[in-house]
Design a protein that fits this description.
Blueprint lengths: L6 E5 L6 H12 L4 E6 L5 H4 E7 L6 E8 L8 E6 L6 H13 L1 E2 L2 E2 L5 E8 L13 H4 L2 E5 L7 H8 L6 H8 L3 H6 L2 H12 L10 E2 L2 E2 L3 E3 L5 E4 L1 H12 L10 H12 L2 E5 L6 H13 L4 E4 L9 E5 L4 E6 L9 E6 L7 H13 L1 E2 L2 E2 L3 E8 L3 E2 L2 E2 L7 H4 L4 E4 L8 H8 L1 H12 L3 H6 L2 H13 L9 E3 L2 E2 L5 H7 L8 H6 L1 H14 L5 H12 L2 H6 L1 H8 L4 H6 L6 H36 L5
Parallel strand pairs: 1-8, 1-9, 2-5, 4-17, 5-8, 14-21, 14-24, 15-18, 18-21
Antiparallel strand pairs: 3-4, 6-7, 10-11, 12-13, 16-17, 19-20, 22-23, 25-26
Helix pairs in contact: 10-11, 14-15, 15-17, 15-18, 20-25, 23-25
Length: 604
C-alpha cells in the first residue's frame, strides 16, 4: 500500500499487536521512514488543525492561517498511522476522512510534508468503537485488511521479552482455546498474565476489570448463555507450563503491587470501595520509591487544559504545551484518582494516550516510572455508585488490575500514631464489636471522623454516612460509646496487659481442657490478630506469655499474609515465647499453671 500510494484500513481485535507491528515493521522495511502515531480517540478538534492569526510576510498584516499539528511535519518521510480511528468524535472523523481520501488536511498537502503512507486501524466490534464507516464515497478510497492474532508477530515479541522461559507450551495452551476465549484472552492480556507470573503474583490479576468486574474466561453455550468458567483451569495450566506457582494472594498486596509497578514501569488499576485508603497508600509508596510526591490528577475536576493545550509556533505549525508536572527529568508516578469519574470524554481520551503510549500529543513523558489508576466499583453495599463503564480494549491496558479489600490497606497504625489511645479503643470496637457488614459501612475515613468527634465531645452518630431522610448507616454505636466512656466490659489489648497473670492462667486452663482451646482462647487470639504493631510492641512480653498457651495452628496464622513489619514482630515474639518457656522449665510451668488455675478469675 505504501508503494501503491493507497490509504490502508486495518481491522483486528484488540490486543493482537496491530500498532506495535506498524511501529516495528515500517522502520525496518523502509529505512529512513518514521511512523507518526496519532491516537484518534484522544484527539480534540483543535489538535490537528486550527486557524490562528499570523503576520503575512508580504503585506505585514495579520491574516488567518491554518496551522497543522507539528507531528505531521517531522522533516523526513513518514507513515501516518491513525490508531483507534473509529473512536474519534464527529468533528475529528471529518478531518480524518479528508486525510484518508486525498492525503490532505485543510490547506495542507501531506505528501508535500513527507507523507508516504496513511493507515487507519481499529477494532470492528461495536462494543469497543463508537461508529462504523458506511459512506461508500469514503469506503471506495481505501484498501481494507482484516487481520487476526495469527497475522502479527506477538509470539516472537513475547519470547524476546521472557528469554529465560520457554513459552512453547503457553502458546500451545492459548492456541487450543476456542475463538471466543482467544478473543477475550488477547495476546496483550496474556503478556500481563506473564508479567504477574514473573512478579510471583496471582495470574488472575493480569485479567482486566471490565465494568468493574474481573474478566472471566467463559465460552458461550449453544443457547447464547455463558458457559462454564475456565479461568482458574487455564491460568493454572499456564503456571504449570512456566514452572511457577499461581498463588491465590500475596501478603500486603497493595504495597507490593505499587512497588513492583514503579520498579517495572507498569500501569496498574486499583479498584476499591470509598474510604479504604487507596489514594493515601499510593501517594505514600510513590514517595518512598521515588523520593517525590506523585503527579496527581483527580479526574472529576481535571480538564483537557490541565494536561495540555495546542499553541501556534513561529515555524507555522501547531505545537502542544504540556502541563509543567509532566515535563522535566525527575522520576514521575502519575496517579489518576477517581479514574471512572472523568469530567468529560475529551479529558479521558487524553489520559488514555498516556496510559497506552506513555506519551501526550506524541511527546513521550520523560522518566515516567508508573501510572496508577484508582477507582470505585459500580456497586457498594447494595448501592449504585455514579461511575462510568469501560470496554475490554480500554480495561486491558493495565498490567495489574486489583480489587482492593479494606483489610488490604491497614490504616489502623496511622490512626494510632496520630490519635493515640482513643484510636486504639475505636479500632478494637471496629475489629471486635461489629459484624462484617458494619465494618463495610465504617471505612478508615469514617473511623477518623468518629475519633475526632469524640475528642470534640460531639455526637458520634453524625460521623456515620448519612443516607437521607434522617437515616444514618446501620451501625450500632452503643458499644463504642461504652468503650470510650471506660464503662464497657469488653476486653482489648490494655485489659489483657492489665491482668496478664489471670489471662495466662485462663489460657493455660483452656489448653488443658481442649487442644483447640476454649472461648477464652478465641478471644485472646482475636485481640492479638487485630492489634496494631505499636500495641504489640508496647506489650511484647505480655504477648509472648499469652502465645505459649495458644494452639500451634493459631500461632502459625500470625506469620501468614502479614506485612513485613508485623511478620518481624511475630518472629521476635515467638522467639521471646521460647525464651520464657525455657526459663520456666517443665516443672516450673506446671507449678505455675496449677497455682494459676486455683486463682483464675471466672469468665465473664
Amino acid at each position: 500500500m505504501i508503494t501503491m500510494g493507497q490509504t490502508g484500513q486495518v481491522f483486528g481485535e484488540h490486543g493482537i499487536g496491530k500498532t506495535s507491528t506498524f511501529l516495528s515493521h515500517i522502520p525496518r522495511r523502509h529505512p529512513g521512514t518514521t511512523v507518526v502515531l496519532v491516537p484518534a480517540a484522544n484527539l480534540t478538534p483543535d489538535d490537528l488543525l486550527v486557524n490562528a492569526p499570523v503576520r503575512d510576510p508580504r503585506s505585514g498584516e495579520l491574516v488567518l492561517t491554518q496551522l497543522i499539528m507539528a507531528q505531521l511535519t517531522p522533516g523526513k518521510p513518514f507513515v501516518l498511522l491513525i490508531d483507534d480511528s473509529l473512536q474519534a468524535g464527529d468533528t475529528i472523523q471529518s478531518q480524518l476522512m479528508q486525510i484518508a481520501c486525498d492525503w490532505t488536511l485543510g490547506e495542507h498537502d501531506l505528501r508535500a510534508l513527507g507523507c508516504v503512507g496513511v493507515f487507519l486501524t481499529d477494532n470492528e466490534s461495536l462494543a469497543e468503537t463508537s461508529a462504523r464507516r458506511s459512506d461508500l464515497a469514503i469506503l471506495d478510497r481505501m484498501v481494507t485488511l482484516r487481520i487476526t492474532a495469527a497475522d502479527t508477530a506477538w509470539r516472537y515479541k513475547l519470547a524476546e521479552r521472557y528469554p529465560d522461559w520457554d513459552l512453547t507450551e503457553v502458546f500451545r495452551i492459548w492456541a487450543g482455546l476456542s475463538p471466543h476465549l482467544r478473543s477475550l484472552f488477547s495476546p496483550r492480556t496474556l503478556e500481563h498474565v506473564l508479567d504477574c507470573a514473573r512478579a510471583e503474583f496471582p495470574l488472575s490479576w493480569g485479567l482486566p476489570l471490565v465494568g468493574g468486574h474481573r474478566l472471566r474466561l467463559r465460552d458461550v453455550a449453544e443457547n447464547g448463555k455463558p458457559g462454564p468458567d475456565h479461568t482458574t483451569e487455564i491460568l493454572d495450566r499456564i503456571a504449570d507450563a512456566l514452572g511457577v506457582r499461581n498463588p491465590r494472594t500475596v501478603a500486603d498486596p497493595v504495597r507490593r503491587i505499587l512497588r513492583t509497578a514503579i520498579r517495572q514501569g507498569w500501569s496498574v488499576l486499583l479498584q476499591g470501595p470509598p474510604g479504604c485508603g487507596k489514594t493515601q497508600i499510593t501517594k505514600q509508596v510513590a514517595r518512598e520509591e521515588t523520593g517525590r510526591d506523585p503527579v496527581y490528577f483527580s479526574l472529576p475536576v481535571t480538564n483537557v487544559e490541565d494536561l495540555c493545550v495546542p499553541i501556534p509556533t513561529p515555524d507555522g505549525t501547531l505545537d502542544t504545551l504540556l502541563s509543567r508536572s509532566l515535563v522535566g527529568p525527575e522520576p514521575k508516578v502519575i496517579v489518576w484518582d477517581e479514574y471512572n469519574r472523568p469530567k468529560d470524554k475529551a479529558t479521558f481520551a487524553k489520559l488514555m494516550e498516556i496510559t497506552q503510549e506513555r506519551s501526550l500529543a506524541g511527546r513521550p513523558i520523560p522518566n515516567l516510572r508508573a501510572q496508577v489508576a484508582l477507582q470505585n466499583p459500580p456497586y457498594h453495599l447494595g448501592r449504585k455508585l455514579q461511575v462510568s463503564g469501560n470496554n475490554v480494549a480500554q480495561a486491558s491496558r493495565f498490567t495489574v488490575s486489583y480489587e482492593v479489600r479494606p483489610e488490604d490497606i491497614p490504616a489502623g497504625q496511622w490512626l494510632v500514631d496520630t490519635y493515640g489511645e482513643v484510636a486504639e479503643t475505636v479500632l478494637e470496637w471496629w475489629h471486635n464489636d461489629i459484624d462484617d457488614e458494619g465494618r463495610q459501612w465504617v471505612t478508615k475515613r469514617t473511623l477518623e471522623r468518629l475519633i475526632r468527634l469524640h475528642q470534640a465531645g460531639l455526637p458520634l452518630e453524625t460521623g456515620l454516612i448519612y443516607l437521607g431522610q434522617g437515616e444514618y448507616a446501620p451501625v450500632p454505636l452503643a458499644q463504642l460509646e461504652a468503650r470510650l466512656a471506660d464503662r464497657s466490659k469488653a476486653v482489648g489489648m490494655r485489659e489483657l496487659a492489665r491482668d496478664v497473670d489471670a489471662w495466662e492462667a485462663r489460657l493455660a486452663a483452656a489448653s488443658e481442657t481442649s487442644a483447640e482451646g476454649t472461648n477464652d482462647t478465641d478471644l485472646v487470639h482475636q485481640i492479638l490478630a487485630n492489634a496494631e504493631v505499636s500495641q504489640l510492641r508496647r506489650h511484647r512480653d505480655v504477648v509472648a506469655r499469652l502465645l505459649r498457651h495458644l494452639p500451634p495452628k493459631l500461632r502459625a496464622t500470625y506469620l501468614v499474609g502479614q506485612t513485613p513489619e508485623k511478620q518481624r514482630f511475630w518472629v521476635a515474639a515467638l522467639a521471646r515465647m521460647a525464651e520464657l518457656a525455657e526459663a520456666a522449665g517443665p516443672a516450673g510451668t506446671g507449678r505455675a499453671r496449677s497455682g494459676r488455675r486455683r486463682t483464675a478469675p471466672r469468665q465473664s
